[in-house]
Specification:
By secondary structure, the protein is an all-alpha fold. The chain contains seven helices and no strands.
């Protein structure tokens, strides 16, 4: 199942990005100033990935899953609501980062708490997908169905990672150095 393998790879790459943010959170929690520009790059990249890949995937894939497995409706709705809440958390972080990068004083303890809550929520979302959604995919989709879905999506995560290397060389080097954390 090539598409399921791609989704697993996407999860591993997202976990690495979250690990980079976790390291920056640790620096902040220790009372030091992290590289906020790098945090900005991670947040921008995740937002771009959400809008450019994940949202279209959910739109196409969610309906197809409900057609094949009506019992997945509750899971699909819960994941969609959690994803929307996750995106809203990330947008708040993005706005706070704008303020920090413009040297506007914001409470760093609140920023650190918001970053920690975002990291926890994103990891929980990835875990729910891995533990609840992926088994349904394996059960209800064969390779041909997954290939048809893949062809209806925008360019995949591999191209996103290539553009990451070009657009954000510092972030890419941190991403490559990050261990392969369990989500």
């Amino acid at each position: 199942m090539p598409m399921l393998n791609q989704l697993r790879l996407d999860h591993a790459n997202m976990a690495r990005l979250l690990h980079v943010l976790q390291l920056k959170h640790k620096t902040l929690a220790e009372g030091e100033r992290p590289d906020f520009q790098l945090v900005r790059e991670v947040v921008d990249y995740i937002l771009d990935y959400m809008d450019g890949f994940t949202v279209p995937l959910e739109r196409v894939f969610g309906q197809e899953l409900m057609d094949k497995a009506p019992e997945a409706e509750g899971l699909s709705e819960r994941l969609a609501a959690n994803y929307q809440a996750l995106r809203e958390r990330l947008m708040r972080l993005s706005q706070d980062l704008d303020m920090v990068l413009m040297d506007v004083a914001i409470p760093m303890d609140r920023f650190a708490d918001d970053l920690s809550a975002y990291l926890e929520a994103h990891r929980a979302y990835l875990r729910d997908e891995r533990e609840e959604l992926f088994p349904l995919v394996r059960e209800h989709f064969d390779d041909e169905a997954l290939q048809m879905l893949a062809e209806s999506l925008p360019e995949g995560a591999a191209a996103k990672l290539e553009s990451l290397q070009e657009s954000y060389p510092e972030l890419y080097s941190e991403l490559c150095a990050a261990p392969d954390p369990m989500v």
